Amino acid sequence: MWKVLGQSSDYWTAQEWYVPAEDGASGRSLLDSMSVKCGVGRKIRTLCCASVLLMLLWTHGAAVLSVSEQPDRSAAQALDGAEVPAFQFVYIFEDISPVGVSQVEFWLGPISGAPSQVEAKAPFDLEGTGKNSVAIPAFFLPGSATVSSRASFSNGSFVDFQADFDVTSSSANEEYVIAFSTFPSRSPSAPLDDQTLFGEIYVFIEDVSTGDVSSLPLVDKVEFFVNQGTLLEDGPPFRTENSAPFDLEGGQANGAIPFDTASLSDGPNQINAKLVLISGAELIVSSTFVVDNDGGIAASLLAEPVSLAFSLDDINVSQTISLTTSDDNAAGIIVSLVGVPAAALSVAPLSGSIPAGGSGTLDLIVTLNAAVSFTGQIVVMTVSNTHIQIVIPVSVASADDYSLLYSLVPSRSDSLLLEGSSFYESAVLYIFLDVDPAATAVTGVVFFLDGVQKQVEGKVPWDFQGGLVSVANPFDVSSLSIGIHVVTAIISLASGLSVEDEATFMIMEAPPEFVLTPPTLDFVKSGTIAPQVMSVSLSTTSIPVPAFEVTVSATWLSVEVALVMSSLTVSVNSSAVPVGTPVSDATLTVSALDGSAVPLTVTVRVFTVDTVATSLPISITFGPAGSSTAGGFVLNTGEPFGSLDASGLWFGWRDAASLLPIDFTGNMRNRGSGGVDETLVLMQSAVGQAGVFDVLLEDGIYDVRVQVGDPLFFDSTHVVNANGLAIVPATTLNAGKRLASFGAVVSVQNGVLRFDASGGVNTKIVSIVLGDGATSCVPSPSQFEGRQISSLSCSAVRIFVPYMFPSFVTGIPDGSGAPTGFTAVIPNTVGVDLNLWFDPNLLAVLPNGDGLLIAASPGSWEGTTNNVVNALAVGLPLPDQEVIVTSLIELPASPSQAGEKMCHFFGISGSDYIMVCVVLSVGSGIEVQVILEENDVANVTPFPLPVGFDGTQIAFRMELAPELNSVTVLAAANLASAVFEELIVFSDVEPSWFSKDAAGIDFLVGTRSYTGVLTEEGNGEEFVLRQFVVDAVAVPSPPPVGPTDIDWSISRINDVGFGSALVFAPNGLLYVASALGQIFAVDVNAGIVLQTYQASEYTSFAVGSEGRLTLGITVDPQSTPELITLWMSHSDASFSDGDANSGTVSRMTLNGLDGSVLSSHDVIVGLPRAIANHAPNQLHFGPDGRLYHAIGGNTGAGASNDGGSEFGPRPEQPLSAALLVLDVNQDLSLLDLDCTPEQDPLGVIMDATGVAFTSIDCDVSIFATGLRNVYDFTFVADDGFPAGAFLIYAQDNGLGVEGTAPPLRDAQGECLGQITGKANRDALNPGARDDLLYILEQGRYYGHPNPSRGECVFAAGNPPNPGAFEVLRSEGGTYSLTAPSIYPTQTLPEPSYSLPEYSLGSSRSANGLLTYESFAFCGELRKDLLSVWYSVGDQVRRLIRVSGQVVNDETLTRSTTGTGGVKLSNPLAVAEDPLGRLVVTEFGASRLTVFTPVGPGCWQAPGVGTPALPLELVDAGSVALGTKLYLFGGKNDNGVFANTLAFDAWKNEWSAIGELAPIPYGAVENPGVVEAGGLVYVIGGSTLAFSGQVNGAARYNPVSDTWESLPSLPTARAGAVVVLFQNEIWVIGGLVASGGGSSTDVVEILNLNTMTWRAGPSLPAVRDNAVGAVVGGEILVFGGRNRQVGEDASSVFSFNGAAWSSRASMPTARRTGCARVVESESSVVVIGGEFANNIASAAVEAYDPGSNSWTVLSDMPDGRHGVACGRIGNGIFVAGGKTSGPILTRDDMQVFRYM
Predict the structure, then answer these.
(1) Which of 1571, 1221, 1278, 1577 is nearest to 1444 (CA)?
(2) Residue 53 carries which DSSP code?
(3) Predicted confidence (pLDDT) per residue in 1064-1102, tens digit
(4) What does UniProt give as the signal peptide span (predicted)?
(5) How far apart are CA 969 and CA 210, in angstroms?
(6) Closest C-alpha among 601, 710, 692, 611 to residue 654
(7) Which one has a higher pLDDT value, 575 or 457?
(8) Helix (H, G, I), strand (E, B), or coil: what is residue 992?
(9) Comparing 70-74, 140-144, 394-398, which segment has the lowest mean pLDDT?
(10) Cα–Cα distance between 1116 and 1185 in angstroms, integer?
(11) What residues pair up with 1085 in beta bridges, in sequence order?
(12) How many Å apart are CA 1453 and CA 1470, to the nearest integer?
């Protein structure tokens, strides 16, 4: 009988152990001082609830109570003061010489009463002695215990002994589990709990620690209960088992009887087991599982063959098992090995998917790796732990062998011999003794390290550091010295012998190792997720990164080394990834070329996702296995990342530091009670391990909601980030608010959504819900703290005016789903879900658009109470314009008059607004109230009802004037009366209410200003909103445009999303950067987007279709039309939570003809980036060839503060708030262009302290500083400047609302540190400041402080002479640069401070800037600056420069409705093409607006702004193609030429003589030239003035610079009109050789399809050297000459396809001029020529075929004939020719800007 000693578990009722007194009196307590608990109503000798056994015994020597863990009593120690393990067998005995001893008595406690055991002969054991003199064990419960003994001698004397000792253990209930197997052998097994099962299974009790089922010595019997309740109250046991193994259905040691799950109902079931221990104690073990016999999981799973056999000679031989399934779904399986020695057998793969329905097989390759004898099993199971086993007998040689091995993983897999091994000092080993199965059994092992005992092991596995069956404990060799060490194992064998094994190993100093950040490279392959690119950082543990090489193990994997050596770009070609495997692995190895660092090999995984989770919403909750979940939620129980959840989702946990998958089940909590589950996950455990949670999703925008908190504990600061965006800000909860929910819209790229708790303390997530972010709006940043404001997309919230209700087609829905016309709902403070402030069932759109019925709700906005439902709103386009908002409200027919209201409001939230209400009250009747509330403080002013009010309707109006910061509130009895009475004017409204500071506005929403209606204090009363109108204030019509004024025609190009910067390239295309990262290639002439490039195509820092905030783009000056190089400036994609040091400059080279990407590269990295949207901005190449780059500031006014502004805590850095410069025309590989602060690469330190490191070690130079947020800048080289001289103009965005300047310098001359506390922040807030225009000089400071550069004083400080610090201000007056509100008098500016050139006014958000270079408008606009105003007064602003200074400014004509043009929506950037057109990006409308110069036309004088021809030239043939003017042949005093010349209008340069291929049929003058299909046709000409006519014909390919000969012209001639008409080339008239040079009327036509000539209808009269054009489907021939009669003609002939006819004659008769079609292909301009006796004409005349009329235009600066000309853009470029003056043949060029 086993006896239990010591204290019992708390599971049992207290009893005492009584023994009879020796004198027969009543019994007394043996355990008088112990608290003992046992089964109810039972008095037993043993103590209960034990699973550890002990014994006492005697040996020779000094008498002492001893204890041993061995039945032979070896390795004994004194019992007194010992620690005895509970729930294990131990042996206690009296260690005394048996000589003279007659008996030994034992007591379980102090000596008292009858002994528990009497031993009459040695050995003297506490529990008696068994066979072979071995002791019988006993066991103790945890706690303190006492054993006493009395040794009696034959002479009648005795001696007493007492031993007090401690018993240690964990809970007994954790020792046993209800397990199951699908095999009668009960192996392999798994816990029954939380399984999904079908068919027959085997259920039994298993020892958790040993995995044993047949030997459970502490268990007396087991009673099983099936679905009979937790308390086992429902009837007798299902079965009682009285001996091990304890099977649910019974069985024998060699096999269990199956239990048929079909006897249970499908769904959740429970089995409970009552374990009765030999002590009498009782344990309850429970398991809940799911039965699914009808769900299809029981489909057949088959293997072929059913068994395998290997012979001794089969080492490294492989055999194949083919698996199939008849299930309609693919079967995911896992493979495990049972009874197989480590490394003896390998199976691949160990997991996979069997194709559905027998459509294919999954093959397992089984390989014998080692010569060991065993009979093992390959077990194949589905992921729900079911199905079949395969037993593979193997016969091989065996050896009686014991080996010391080591492994690098806890599972002891992939082990190697320890002997002779070497390890670095950083290694962590798992050392163990391996015993060959055929060897003599081992009974114990004692391990020694360098002669010192290290560990005693009494059972397998034999681990050097101890461990469990499944895992060994680690041995960290860092505790060892460098050198040789020895591990010795003394092995006790079952034979009674001992053997020794010894292994010597070496510890070496660890060499440098490569380190990749991030350390894990996981990609996603899916049809909906683009192939991926990942940027990783490479470093080493102790040395700079040496020269290295990278190798990969798969063709689908590639790596590119960036210019900055510490950056690698890892790419996965998804199409080449193997098909059919859930996870594909490859390796990436980095090796030092000189061997100076340990090579690094990392595994790259590609998750093949056949169905990415797209069914939204996705709802995930967290908790322990078995926890209940709400409907629609998926329970995550902490599984490592990398497996497919049963719900179809890929998700799981990674370690936050290493990003390696981790088991996070230990962090799951269930706080529920009474059957209610309240579950959560602890993101940071008590031991410091933090986890991140990954979900695989399609790329896109998601509405992410996170609930945090804990029902019981409030010791957390919860912080949750999703893909780097702060979803949950630092939040502390309490008993009054135990849970909190937050939300935001998050971008998912590369298919991974990652949640982390960085910055939090003890963060706990309750649930995550993912919705469609593209169809809902959670602004970020915003005043709504992550709350959703609309079910529409964010871009639909801000309206365009005029906006009229009920003429609406969009809006949030009413209860029936009809659109209400309102685009947003202002959140209340009740909770975080939209349904808490929006109830569509209280809204109804009336039939025929007759209004919106609104049922009043009981909430209120006034004061801190903000619980209004249905605060319906629209986002206002402010501060662009003045706005009038009008509402007409119909009162309820039967009001309750209990104070219910309907109100019309304007503001930014329920805490800051102006509202006018109609109030229905019994006491005071109906009245009007106007409410101003600021920061939850409300002021209510009553007003009388408007005149004429009849009790049925009332109208309200608000006039919003952003320029004046004023709101006027009016009321009227109705709209029909049209008489509004002014109630009140608020003249000093907070500027932020008008959206004046763009830094805190979600760019998709585009506003923080809202207007709308709401009800208060109601109870269902039905108001009707009859009208709601938002309109702009009317502006007066502009005056007529005069003939000398600047004017433009307007066109627009749509679908250019969020254009942020733009540049024209030499191929004629416009490249537009988007704030979302795309680059659009736009053909402005055609008005279409040709191609879109994603950010991942030009930078390694972006992947997929999104990912960067791109605010700058420029074209490399070395670009050609064929080869375009673009430079982009970009940073982290977030507008509100930008990553520090994420600024990057990238370069992308394109094929200029087809647009393909030839190469891309990140050139400069690590540039500053603010938390808000201040970022690396525009970049331009200067006239000096260097690249200049504007970097925004990190702060509002120079200092970091703790005030929670949109800029957050990030301070200025050395490279922030500056203009940078870099000469890129050098070998960049020799430069350090990684500007990341080495001490703080992620910005963690500076964000935490408010202090940045003051030195940046990179080769980018600072040109000028103190620039808060220069978005754009421009270069000016005035005509009188010396060669190479230029100015840099930059416009800086002034402080919008709030900011903090640094304090003045301290004693050390510094002003570093974060400004803390509201009082300090307010004292150093300069307030709103103007936008300023600067002329930047190198080394100067412009007023925005940067403590990291030692720049401390804001602007001009507070000097004693403030008048010296004033500049001219836009629209009159001056502006002071001083800041007296924050500085004491005599505060001087920084020594290097420079004043601005001009003030642009407040809140303009002046962004795009350029110098207008075109000669359009006769040069009137040339060298003026054009500034784009994004905010107040959206427009293009002309800054007028006189003598090199800005003296005035005005709105550019047509850039506002007030100047007769268009309404620009948040214009941001501007570019000019070489022809004088302007293109402006409209950020708020995602489009481009094109301004094309128009007007009567004027001349750009010869040689002004245009280069000279390579030679003097007259009578050349010419044609314009694209942006080039081509000239062919011609002559001068030196003869006739065959040259081909080209003028590039974009580069403003001529080709060299001989650079292009000449005319193939020889030198000629007056050839005919025409373009068709991009090719140039050159026909005829002559070698002399009146003779030498030729019939040559050829066509020229400008792209390839090649010629092709054509069939000869039938009639040789020169000076003919050559045009393209109906896809045929017509050669009309000309000069033929007959008669010494005669004019002809011959017309000949070349068919371009057949390349054959035919005769055409003759001209009505002979003509040579006429000019011609094709307009409106007819040929026009102007003027010319009849040489036979010596007459110059003014005639105009027209051919309409049938016959020739005459038109209105030219005002000036002439020949050898130039004619070009202009103005939308509807007019022809005829320029110059000659008449009479070689007199050059200056006439310029325009013919309109529609009206058959002529208009005389401005004459040429000097007359020309024989000119070459071509139309490029809005100019006709006229080259060469002859004049009538002394210089006859010319080499200059003049341009007619016809506009």
Answers:
(1) 1278
(2) B
(3) 999 989 999 999 899 999 999 888 999 999 898 999 887
(4) none
(5) 82
(6) 692
(7) 457
(8) helix
(9) 394-398
(10) 9
(11) none
(12) 15
Beta strands in 623-717 (DSSP E): 633-636, 651-655, 668-670, 679-682, 691-696, 700-709
- Give 1086-1120 as a DSSP string: TTEEEEEE-GGGT-TT-BTTB-EEEEEEEE-TT--
Q: What is the mean pLDDT of residues 1541-1549?
A: 89
Supply the pLDDT for residue 153.
Answer: 86
Let me know: does 1079 contact 1073? Beta carbons within 8 Å.
yes
Q: Helix-strand-coil percent breakdown of the chain, rounded to 5? A: 5, 45, 50
Question: Cis (ω within 30 of 0) for the bond into 1496?
Answer: no
CA distances from 683 to 531, 650, 665, 717, 1479 (A): 31, 19, 11, 11, 51
Q: Kind of pairing, strands 1624-1632 and 301-304? A: unpaired
- Evaluate whether 1357 touches 1387 at the Cβ level (below 8 Å): yes
Its pTM stands at: 0.56
Distances (CA, A) of 300 to 330, 388, 683: 12, 9, 41
Contact between 1454 and 1490 under an 8 Å Cβ cutoff? The reply is no
Judge contact between 386 and 182, C-beta under 8 A.
yes
pLDDT exceeding 90 applies to what percent of the chain?
41
Taken in order 1240, 1245, 1249, 1250, the sign of the CA dihedral is positive
CA Rg value for the chain: 46
The alpha helices in 1118-1158, defined as continuous H runs, are none
Place of tokens 């709504």: 784
Per-position DSSP letters for 1267-1307, written without gaps between them: -S-EEEEEEE--TTSPTT--EEEEEEPPP-S---PPPPP-T
Grade residue 37 by pLDDT with cuts at 50, 70 and 90.
very low
> What token pair was written down for 1765?
């000309």
Q: How far apart are CA 1015 and CA 479, in angstroms?
A: 73
* ω into 1214 cis (within 30 of 0): no
Query: How far is Cα 1040 from Cα 1020, in angstroms, rounded to an integer?
Result: 56
Residues 6+ apart with CB under 8 A from 28: 18, 19, 21, 112, 113
Q: 798-826 burial string, b = 16+ CB within 10 Å, else e? A: bbebebebbebeebbebeeebebbbbbbb
Q: Which residue has the tokens 């046709």?
A: 1577
Residue 889 near residue 992, CB atoms below 8 Å: no
- Angle 378-382-385 (CA atoms, 0-180°, nearest 5)? 90
Looking at residue 1149, what is its pLDDT? 96
- Average pLDDT in the chain: 83
Measured distance CA(1532)–CA(1511) in Å, rounded: 8
- Rounded Cα distance between 481 and 479, Å, is 7
User: Of all helices (H) and strands (E), which one includes residue 121?
Assistant: none
DSSP 1005: T
**Which among 1407, 992, 968 has a CA at the least distance from the CA of 1177?**
1407
The SS3 assignment for 249 reads coil
Measured CA to CA, the distance from residue 1481 to residue 1113 in angstroms comes to 13
pLDDT band for position 1554 (50/70/90)?
Answer: very high
Predicted confidence band of residue 563 (pLDDT cuts 50, 70, 90): very low
Domains (range + CATH), the chain = 4-168 (2.60.40.10), 173-291 (2.60.40.10), 301-394 (2.60.40.10), 402-508 (2.60.40.10), 514-608 (2.60.40.2310), 611-775 (2.60.120.430), 791-1034 (2.60.120.200), 1061-1494 (2.120.10.30), 1498-1793 (2.120.10.80)
Greatest CA separation found in the chain? 170
Distance CA 556, CA 550 (A): 15
3-state secondary structure of 477: helix
Element (H, E) at 1758: none
Q: Which two tokens stand for residue 177?
A: 């589990």
Residue 1623, number of CB atoms within 10 A of its CB: 10
